[in-house]
Amino acid sequence: MGGMLVPFAGAGTAGAAPAPRPGAPRSDATTESHTVTLVTGDVVRYVDGPGDRDTVTVDRPDGASGGVRIQQAGDDVYVLPDEATTLIAAGTLDRRLFNVSALVRMGYDDEGTGAIPVIATYPPARAKALPATPRGAQKVRTLASIHGAALSADKDGARTFWDAITRTPSARSLDSGIAKLWLDGRSEALLADSVPQVRAPEAWAAGFDGKGTKVAVLDTGIDADHPDVKDRLVGARSFVPGEEVDDKHGHGTHVASTIAGSGAGSDGANKGVAPAAALLVGKVLSDEGSGADSGIIEAMEWAKAEGADIVSMSLGSPVPDDGTDPMSQAVNSLSADGGPLFVIAAGNAYGAGTIGSPGSAEQALTVAAVDKRDGRGFADYLYDLVDRHDGTIPDRSLAFAPSTRRLAKVENTFYGHKKTLGAGYRYDIPDYGPGLGFEEYEQFPDVRTEWVNPLPGDSFWYENHSVLDAEESDRAHEMRSAELDYRAGKGYRAEWFAPVTRPRLGTGYWGPFRTVDNDLQFNITPWTDAGAGHSGSMPENEYDTTSYAFYQGDTQLKKGAGRAGYIGDLSAEKRPYRLVIDSARDAKTWKTSTRTRSEWGFVSGALDEAGPYRADIPLLQLDYAVDTDLAGDVRAGRTTEIGLTSGTQEWLPGAVKANKASLSVSYDDGKHWTKVDLRKKKTGEWTAKLRTPSKGATSVSLKAHAQGPGGLVVDQQIIRAFGLK
Question: What SUPFAM superfamilies does this protein map onto (predicted)?
Answer without folding.
Answer: Subtilisin-like (SSF52743)
